[in-house]
Design a protein that fits this description.
Elements (H helix, E strand, L loop, with lengths): L8 H6 L5 E6 L7 H8 L6 E6 L11 H12 L2
Parallel strand pairs: 1-2
């Protein structure tokens, strides 16, 4: 990605060529959680989007449920 406000996020997402996990908090203040998957999925070849319930944007950093989602995803690789 090219920064906090990428001018062409579509090209940035298309350039990802590895399996990826995108986490978003259900209460995210920076993104629309309910629109995130439909935005990311068409642009990435192997990406999973997971919404962490009751979690804000920065809350993802300390969310036990989010950490467990990442752990499970990594173990499945």
């Amino acid at each position: 990605m090219t920064g906090f406000n990428p001018s062409n996020y579509r090209d940035d997402l298309r350039s990802i060529n590895v399996s990826s996990l995108f986490l978003i908090g259900a209460e995210d203040e920076a993104f629309f959680a309910d629109r995130f998957e439909s935005t990311v999925q068409p642009l990435t070849s192997d990406a999973e989007v997971a919404i962490v319930p009751d979690t804000s944007h920065l809350g993802l950093l300390v969310s036990e449920e989010g950490i467990e989602m990442v752990r499970h995803w990594l173990q499945a690789l």
